[in-house]
Amino acid sequence: LPDWHPDLSIMLLVRELPRGAIPVYFDHPDVMESYIAGRALPAGHISVTDKLEDFLPPNHPLNLDEMLQNPFDYELPFGHPDLNEMMNITELDMPKIPV
């Protein structure tokens, strides 16, 4: 391919996506909606990079936490999987808060 041709790896559909890699509470916010709206991860959120880096394709950036802190600075490429697919929505025991 000529030098000016885009890297084909950015156009490949990766078969093994990290679907369900991160268990979350049933009422977790919609990640894709939050990302598109530019809402950053809340302070103290677990590291998404730590949870997903073993599942990412070789050419994927590893600064996921930075991307999720500044969504407007990192537009998702065309064809990127829905971010919600990386979560495993479960009925984890919610932390009990004494009243």
Question: In brief, what are we looking at here?
Answer:
The protein is an alpha+beta fold and 99 residues long.
Query: CA-to-CA gap between the ends?
Result: 66 Å
Largest beta-sheet details: 2 strands, parallel
Helix content: 10-25%
Low-confidence sequence ranges: none
**Which descriptor suits the 3D outline?**
globular
Number of helices: 3
Spatial ordering of strands, largest sheet = 1-2
Rg value? 16 Å
Counting copies of identical and different chains, the oligomeric state is: single chain
The averaged pLDDT comes out at: 80
% residues in beta strands: 5-15%
The count of strands amounts to 2
Q: What string, H for helix and E for strand, traces the elements in order?
A: EHHHE
Structure characterization notes:
With 99 residues, the protein is α+β, with helices and mostly antiparallel strands. 18% of the residues lie in helices and 8% in strands. It contains three helices and two strands, in the order E-H-H-H-E. It has a two-stranded parallel ribbon with strand order 1-2. 8% of the residues are buried. The model has no long low-confidence stretch (mean pLDDT 80).
Helix-strand layout with pairing:
Layout: E1 22-25, H1 31-37, H2 48-52, H3 64-69, E2 87-90
Parallel strand pairs: 1-2
Key attributes of the depicted protein:
99 residues; alpha+beta
